[in-house]
Amino acid sequence: MGTLIRRLVTLPIAGLVAALALSTGGPAAALPIYPVADPDPFFGAPADLVAAHQPGDVLKIRQMPPNLYFPGSEVWELLFRTTDSEGKPIAANTTLLVPPNFVPDSPLVSYQHIINALGHKCKIATELYTTDPLTQIREAPGLNIALARGWAVALPDHLGPRMAYGAAKLGGQVTLDGIRAVKRVPELRVVNSPVGLGGYSGGGMATAWAAALAPTYAPELDIVGAAEGGVPMNLVKMASALGTNPHPAFGLAMAAALGLEREYPERMNVSGQLNDNGRWLQSMIRDGCTNEIMFWGVGRSASQVTDNVNFMDDPSAWQVMEENSLEMYPGIPAVPLFEWHSPTDTLVPVDAIDNTIRRYCDAGVPVQTLLTPSPDHLSAAVLGLPQALDWLDGRFRGVPAPSTC
Questions:
Q1: Which positions carry the signal peptide feature in this UniProt record (predicted)?
Q2: CA–CA distance, 112 with 158 (Å, rounded to integer)
Q3: Could you report the per-residue pLDDT of 229-248, keeping only the tens digit for each?
């Protein structure tokens, strides 16, 4: 089981969500099962969230103790106002790392981690200080390379306060408002910092959405480029391709369906479709991190957790998938992109990546694509990250962006 989990922890959420997320027709909707509230009161939204604050406004800030992952760096946590997928105000958080060699207004990288989870204990802000051996910051080595270059690094918890695993557009908005937040605190010394974006797989999806949304959602941000890898660009294609057979990573499918239901409670009816087996699985993973979700869901299928044979027939669910698919989003990034993936990646539709990048190129966006010499999704993440950081360094230094368009 340990080997299986290590191989599948970076599986993209989109390709696994279909069987449950589309189970919305049939019986009456049940209320979504939200995560248990974070026990740390710091993450609670203030009562005046709607009346007194705009997107990116800082609600709370605190400095944290030194962190073993990032020796010598200051660690700050910020709670800020952002917007959910349906335009409603919510509070989200980001963690800012400031290395000891940081010079004021040096580069700032917002790095979106892979967060395959439903519980608050799985947030980056929590995992940085946990003693749980099953949770770890897998991208820490690459982030230390960025910190050694004198860059500040922001780590947003891009699933938002509901831990809405699967809601890709939300991730982009949380990312952008997290950048706004750290720039609104002069003591953090990043007010005038140029910004780069980075992330892979589910984190790459939040990164890619942030880049695409920035021209309209946060046009004032000085974003110099976005490095995005292994991005699921089209949830509809991935949903259509997923069958009903048992799958070793079905737990992630279930988790993504529940996460989307949390974000779209009036349009996604997942809980109302579950049979006894489904409700049992829901109870086991509702606050779970990757390892728990994988363990309890391994080898299961949609037909085991719902009795609705028409689970692919609900137009509302398909529309939600479309709204979270970059290939279908008409917006164009206004910054150069570095994009990397395996050309034989079987977990994301490579043609959706190609189509999206071609559309960006046709619009005049400089895009450098790296096809990694690896057959799978996981190894591509490691192979592309060093070049992604080098590419961001060039953007920070003002070197014209290369393009393979």
A1: 1-30
A2: 7
A3: 999 888 777 766 655 678 78
Give the CA distances from residue 286 to residues 40, 165, 230, 274, 376, in Å, rounded to whole numbers and listed in that order. Answer: 19, 11, 26, 14, 29
pLDDT average, residue stretch 3-13: 36
Instruction: Please name the residues in contact with 98: beta carbons below 8 A apart, sequence gap of 6 or more.
Output: 73, 74, 76, 152, 188, 189
Residues 102-114 have a mean pLDDT of 97
Alpha-carbon distance of 261 to 255, in angstroms, equals: 10
Q: What is the CATH number of the domain that holds 124?
A: 3.40.50.1820
Identify the domain containing residue 112 by its residue range.
1-405
Dihedrals φ, ψ of 93, to 5°? -135, 155
User: What total of structural domains would you count in the chain?
Assistant: 1
Q: CB of 338 within 8 A of CB of 368?
A: yes
**Phi, psi (degrees; rounded to nearest 5) at 94:** -140, 155
Query: Strand 74-83 and strand 58-64: pairing?
Result: antiparallel
Distance from C-alpha of 185 to C-alpha of 65, rounded to nearest angstrom: 19
Q: Which two tokens stand for residue 227?
A: 């490095």
Backbone angles phi, psi at 41, to 5 degrees: -65, -15
* 275 alpha-carbon distance from chain centroid: 29
Residue 347 has pLDDT above 90, yes or no: no
- Taking CA atoms, 250 is separated from 115, 177, 266, 272, in Å, by 16, 32, 24, 19
* pLDDT value of position 276: 94
> Does the pLDDT of residue 293 top 70, yes or no?
yes
